[in-house]
Amino acid sequence: EDINSEFAQTDAVYVIGGSEGALNTTMLVEKHPETYAGGLALCGPLAGTSYQVAHLADVRVLFDYFYPEVFPFGALDVPDDAPAQWDGPDGYKDKIAAAIEAAPDAIAQVFNVAGVACDTADHQEAANCAQNMLAYSVFGTNDLLDTAAGWPISNVAKEYSGSADDAALNVGIERFDADPAASEYADLQYRPSGLLQRPLVTLHATGDPAVPYRHELI
What we know:
mainly alpha, 3-stranded parallel beta sheet
């Protein structure tokens, strides 16, 4: 209503967004067909927050399994001061890169199991991909726990595959369960319905490591 009143001569309003903005675009087109004539959603987590959180959480616990020396805290036990320790000569960002440089075969297993699109033959590129995804754990975990009043997804029954020793991986990887209320909140607030009254174009790069192309298929 604000858009239509501010631009009174506009015949149609289209909304465009990328990444998280693509999810916002999708939900705006779904929920407000009276305002938006259509939308363009680019590389978005269109399968919803729960699927996206599961992907990033898998990367975190898989990374911890293969590189236990980098993070001195569990996936759901991120200290409040962790974001302040991300950068710097002894920060987590540099520790990730150093660990991958020392053991590049391990990050190839992490990405293979998690289905991450990244060139692990290029150690710098592999480090960039890992830093990008692990930053969500450091900077976003506590915010998600506070917002959803709990953790929304579970890996308790998940069978991980694609490593050199899946049996050992499934025994040793960190497990976490979901809070039912948090799961309900995440799906209610951040999962598109797919019920459209206006046209929506979605596009996704197959090489996106953080927001995988699988969202588009789902």
